Amino acid sequence: MNYVLKNLDCPNCALRIEKALLKNGILDAKVDFSTLTLTTSEVDTSKIRKIVNSVDEEVEVLEEVSDEKDDSKVKLKEVFWILFPLLFTLVYGVLHFVLMKNFGLFIDLLVVSFIFFVGGGVKTLIRAINNSKSGALLNENVLILLAFLGALLLGHTFEALLLITLYNLGIFLEDVALRNARSKIGKAVYEVFGKVRLRDNRLVNVDEVEVGDIILVKPGETIPLDGEVVKGSAFVDKSTMTGESIPE
User: Fold this and answer.
1) SS3 for the chain, per residue?
2) N or C: which end of the chain has fewer CB within 10 A?
3) How many Å apart are CA 232 and CA 48, to the nearest integer?
4) φ and ψ of 185, to 5 deg
5) Phi, psi angle pair for 241, to nearest 5°
6) Cβ pair 14, 33 in contact under 8 A
7) What predicted TM-score, i.e. pTM, was given to this entire model?
8) 181: region left, alpha or beta (phi > 0 left; psi from -120 to 50 alpha)
9) Quick one: angle between helices 76-93 and 157-193, nearest 10?
10) Is the model more confident about 144 or about 127?
11) Whole-angstrom distance, CA of residue 138 vs CA of residue 141
């Protein structure tokens, strides 16, 4: 059975989830980060969700891909909640350094708390806790939080805020790039494997083909379905299965 792991944002997390599943009795779990899928014979979705969320609470386990919307598109709300804290931090820095304003301890703590909550600091803290629980004690989220606290203790409020906002901006940009790449790969794979040419030369979706239909495979095309050769002959490139470079 195939599951979709929504919000899975790093290869390391995928590896930890796979290890956690295997450790908790799921014998044949395989997590593919490039397609965000989990392949396993386990049909107990609640059990899968419990194990996955013990590693990363943000990952959502779905039984099938939702066709309601294209997740590769960047939402305006996402951009706002990334750029607003960064802009607020830069304005704070300008007021603090260029205009030489001394806001006082209370104002500084208020600004730090505000940016920490809206700028992704809480998410960074949650990721750090989840990664630590799964065995990765000194992960990048922990190091960022230590650097953030260190800058605050040294009195460098602006640098601390800039660090946490830029770090989360980097994660956001990485997520956008991954979503776009997955979307393009998915479309390319569908174009290659998702269409079947019938013997009247019409292209139809794979799921529209019924048992007994005769399909036509032209030179250079991929064989999209299992079946028997009823007419003709050809060399077939099976290098992805056999490793041999010469078609058979």
Assistant:
1) CEEEEECCCCHHHHHHHHHHHHHCCCCCCEEECCCCEEECCCCCHHHHHHHHHHHCCCCEEECCCCCCCCCCCCCHHHHHHHHHHHHHHHHHHHHHHHCCCCCCHHHHHHHHHHHHHHCCHHHHHHHHHHHHHCCCCCCHHHHHHHHHHHHHHCCCHHHHHHHHHHHHHHHHHHHHHHHHHHHHHHHHHHHHHCEEEECCCCEEEHHHCCCCCCECCCCCCCCCCCCCCCCCCCCCCCHHHHCCCCCC
2) C
3) 47
4) -65, -45
5) -100, -40
6) yes
7) 0.61
8) alpha
9) 160
10) 144
11) 8
Cα-based distances in Å from 12 to 8, 28, 147: 10, 19, 21
Q: How far apart are CA 121 and CA 76, in angstroms?
A: 20
Q: Which two tokens stand for residue 131?
A: 């990664």
Handedness of CA 36, 37, 38, 44 (dihedral sign): positive
Pull the structure tokens for residue 224.
Answer: 């999209």
Pick from 66-75, 152-161, 232-241: least confident: 66-75
Rounded CA separation 101/119 (Å): 23
Cα 38 to the center of its chain, rounded Å: 13
Q: pLDDT tens across 36-91, in order?
A: 888 888 888 888 988 988 888 778 888 764 444 455 567 777 788 788 888 888 88
